[in-house]
């Protein structure tokens, strides 16, 4: 049986050691690096199931590392950082992270988040994807769930895994209105908590990447007080 391997990228040795200790207790194998460039190199050359990235690291910061990883890999990424402002969290999620944990942190909470992300990734892989294999073609959008690709009028659009899942959920149920709570629980597979603006941030980024401002219609429509729907 292949052991699940987690990459820990943090230039604070004590934090990396603490993470390794708790993750090893869960049965995970850990690889520790101290900068973003080395994290990218490891992911390109080794089989890694999940990455925990600090943001402020030498040579290459966590944001740039995540962007580079997302070019070729769809493994879960969790940011672990002392940068705790809402803007920092939004930037992390938009960059491609699946979760964002601030320092100081509860090691057991982080382990729980790791477990949740790995469960979701495993469900996707064993089921052949979070969706069926039917290609969706709306005349504007073409979504291939098997290859996880999206194009608008034949122009490819690069999306993060969460952005893809949100878009697929909406497009596969045209005209149905989904609340932020429903979207969050369907995509993140976690309980929704009041005050979370995670879905709103991802919807905003999706609209920019789909270049709605250049289209004649809003592909993702906001139904005020209710939620979001695909309107293409």
Automatic annotation (TrEMBL):
It comes from the Bacteria. The keyword Phosphoprotein applies. GO terms for biological process: regulation of DNA-templated transcription. GO terms for molecular function: phosphorelay response regulator activity; transcription cis-regulatory region binding. It comes from Paenibacillus kyungheensis. Coiled coil: none annotated. Residues 133-232 form the OmpR/PhoB-type domain. This is Response regulator transcription factor. Gene3D superfamilies: 3.40.50.2300, 6.10.250.690, Winged helix-like DNA-binding domain superfamily/Winged helix DNA-binding domain.
